[in-house]
Automatic annotation (TrEMBL):
Superkingdom, taxonomy of origin: Eukaryota
PANTHER family per the UniProt record, alphabetical: INTEGRAL MEMBRANE PROTEIN (AFU_ORTHOLOGUE AFUA_5G08640), MARVEL DOMAIN-CONTAINING PROTEIN
Name assigned to this protein: MARVEL domain-containing protein
Membrane-spanning segments: 7-32, 44-63, 75-95, 115-137
């Protein structure tokens, strides 16, 4: 088991929360789009981000502890964090501050619209949280590898120096 087992569990939990939030947002926004014939670019953007996140983070749940996957995972997380931040901003602009009842889709419950805002924020938060933990894990792993290489190199140098001195 890795020495930072609790941090790996937090990474997996973070990925699961992103996956769950994206699934909920996909369901609510899909229902909005299904009920109305009018199209709203903010809602379509949010639905697209959520729908693309679901399979991506399902893969992250499977490959969260693969060492060679960390760099790609951090880059994917960075890209998705910007998309989710934009989605959250769109939802907050459209559905908070007294604009909920009159905003697209009209006639839909404000509680559902506010749920989208909340789960957009949760997805963004857990994306950033997971990236920070993965970055810390990668930093500590690289630091440990550098220390081990230095010790190995020091051992080789001292061994070869001893061999040269005895000859």
């Amino acid at each position: 088991m890795p020495p930072n087992n609790a941090l790996y569990v937090l990474v997996k939990a973070s990925h699961f929360m992103v996956f769950a939030s994206a699934t909920i947002v996909t369901g609510i926004l899909g229902w909005f789009l299904h009920r109305t014939s009018a199209q709203n670019t903010h809602v379509i953007f949010q639905e697209t981000v959520a729908a693309v996140t679901v399979p991506a983070y399902l893969g992250h749940l499977v490959f969260a502890q693969v060492d060679s996957y960390y760099e790609q995972s951090l880059m994917v997380g960075l890209a998705f964090s910007y998309l989710w931040l934009t989605s959250f901003i769109f939802a907050a602009q459209d559905w908070t501050g007294g604009r909920c009842a009159s905003a697209f889709p009209r006639g839909s419950s404000c509680s559902q619209k506010k749920a989208v805002v909340a789960f957009d924020f949760l997805a963004f938060f857990f994306l950033v949280f997971g990236m920070l933990i993965k970055g810390y894990l990668k930093y500590t792993q690289n630091k440990k590898n550098r220390t081990q290489r230095r010790e190995y190199t020091d051992g080789v140098i001292s061994t070869s120096e001893n061999a040269m001195r005895s000859a």
